Sequence to fold (467 residues):
Amino acid sequence: MSDKGAPSSGRPGRVRVASGQGFWGDDLEAPVRQIEGGQIDYLMLDYLAEVTMSIMQKQRSRDPRAGYARDFVALMERILPACIERGIRVVTNAGGVSPEECARAVAEAGRRVGAGGGARIGVVTGDDLMDRLDDLASAGHPLAHMETGEPLASVRDRVRSANLYLGARPIVRALEGDATVVVTGRSTDTALTYAPLVHEFGWSWGDWDRLASGIVAGHINECGAQASGGNCSAEWWSIPDLSEVGFPIVEASPDGSFVVTKHSGSGGAVSLRTVKEQILYEMGDPSIYITPDATADFTTIRLEEDGSDRVRVHGVRGAPPTDYLKVSVAYGAGYKAVGTLVYAWPDAAAKARAGARVLRERMDRLGLAFDQVLVELVGWDSTHGHLAGHPPPDIPEVQLRVGVRGGDRAAVERFTREIAPLVLTGPPSVTGFSGGRPRVQEIVAYWPALIERTAVEPKVSVEVREL
Fold:
């Protein structure tokens, strides 16, 4: 794991943590390019978001052996031999709501490619609170909504998933157990990057500045190519070769400073503008970026160019964590359906608006009531709403998109039957109607909450086993 020029203490002089996934469904070839494109020490793969956990919980309710990112298993079957040969360790939250099942599947994949006995897998559990919610409530933990203050009891019967955000400590324990692959559930995204740095450099859990620097490194790494030219707003047209974009790599030093880069010859770009955009992503108060292990002050970040596709980050200051951990809860909040029709020139926008009016009048006559009805003209006002102004009369085509949501599934189902009739019973020139009747979907809402860490952290466990 260390550079050849490692100091005499036995600690490495530099550690390279490569980002290979920014979300579940990201570029499947990116992890392969990271392994084959040059030297790295760790590959971190971030699969989870708030809604992802509820999807995985649904999968597990149908199949007790499901509930994790299955494409991660196929990926490991493909790359594990190369990881073992090159000494690359993998850290991921692909375990979702079933980290043990994910680890079992990875172990089976490893044995299929002859990696049995040549690697170890670490499993982090304890973040899933679904089976403990009632006990926690009885013990005086209301898991109140962070914005409204409403107790979780008000939606308890509709809760689909409840997961604790874990930090880097259990991942470090797994790495200390010589795990080649570490699988977690709802770890914080940033921990997937800074846990390897804590482990390799031997940072103290009270070394707030170094931990904060690791947190910033993790924040830059967590969204994949968004830090290396993908989804770049500033002069996006100048980003080269996005078809094979290079994902970011953090080259960290023991003092906490690091360089953001990518493999030589890969597409995309690492520059001050791309790194700054990612730093600002999902940012609240920049002076208090909270994680389970420390808080980072993003206003202290210092950036400077360090050569082609290299940005040096340093100067980050940190502080102790809070006494609380965040809990991500997902609960059922009714049903929705979305239908679309495309109207062509002439008078495309006027036709679409008339079609929406006809549809609404028919729903009113049927007595269909919804919590919300949303009408959008895609191609004109779906992004900027009323700020788009009035569409020009010569707009060539527009997609009418109508969505409804409410607690009555039958009403939402009936709405789905009223879209197609507009083709022949509404304004003319409808095209692009395909895919059949709109599908009714359950709405999964997000419930953020806090809980005292002393009530939940002792339940977190780490197991390292042979593949």
In short: The CA atoms of residues 346 and 394 lie 7 Å apart. Residues 15-328+449-466 form one domain. The longest strand covers residues 324-344.
